[in-house]
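Tutorial, part two.
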Amino acid sequence: MRSSTRLDSALFQLTPTRISVQLLKVLEMRKKMLQKEQGMAFTRAVAVGFDVDHLPPLISFAECFGASCLMDACRRYKELWKRKHETGQWLEIEAAKACLTEQTSLP
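Running the prediction step on this input gives:
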């Protein structure tokens, strides 16, 4: 009985302002996690040699053979690559790439 009273009082103390603040904190944390995941995916793509310099032949191939998913992926990657360079996030990716290179070269 006592714990339900505590729970009721805790729920009662949650005002709309507090709920909004907590929701904003959760959303901000989720945004940071998604950005980190995106950065990791981008880093892996760069590490395996998926480079922006190789995109024109891939896009040409996709256009010739009607591979709309490949064409879309290439265009999105190119946009992401541009954004990463404009915002300075490229430096983080280069550092991660260097770490991956070191790890794969170890015996």
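DSSP finds five helices and no strands in the chain. In part three we will examine how such features are distributed along the chain.
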